[in-house]
Amino acid sequence: MRAVLVDWLVEVAAEYKLLPDTLYLSISHIDRFLSLNALPRHKLQLLGVSSMLISSKYEEISGPHVEDFCYITDNTYTREEVVKMEADILKALKFEVGNPTIKTFLR
């Protein structure tokens, strides 16, 4: 399921013209969150968009808004659900969001 989520996030990043660093950081946040918490399959897309929201706030000059991420999920999740998951991720990661990604090591 992770592979499906990552493929979808690549498409989301392309749709919103996000920096590659944003995508890599999102995947890193997902992996770190899932290593600490069990999550039902139906919440993986929510985890993905919330991670990308965090990463876009960190990396992008003018990133997509919460509503854009709700829209890209075909409004499967509400604004409140995305914001709640964002808070859950930040809490689980202890607000350490600027960690090195795979791209850092490939430079």
Automatic annotation (TrEMBL):
SUPFAM superfamilies: Cyclin-like. It holds the Pfam family Cyclin_N. Keywords: Cell cycle, Cell division, Cyclin. InterPro entries: Cyclin, Cyclin-like_dom, Cyclin-like_sf, Cyclin_N. One of its GO terms (biological process) is cell division. The keyword Cell cycle applies. Residues 7-91 form the Cyclin-like domain. Transmembrane segments: none annotated. Belongs to the cyclin family. This is Cyclin-like domain-containing protein. It comes from Punica granatum (Pomegranate).
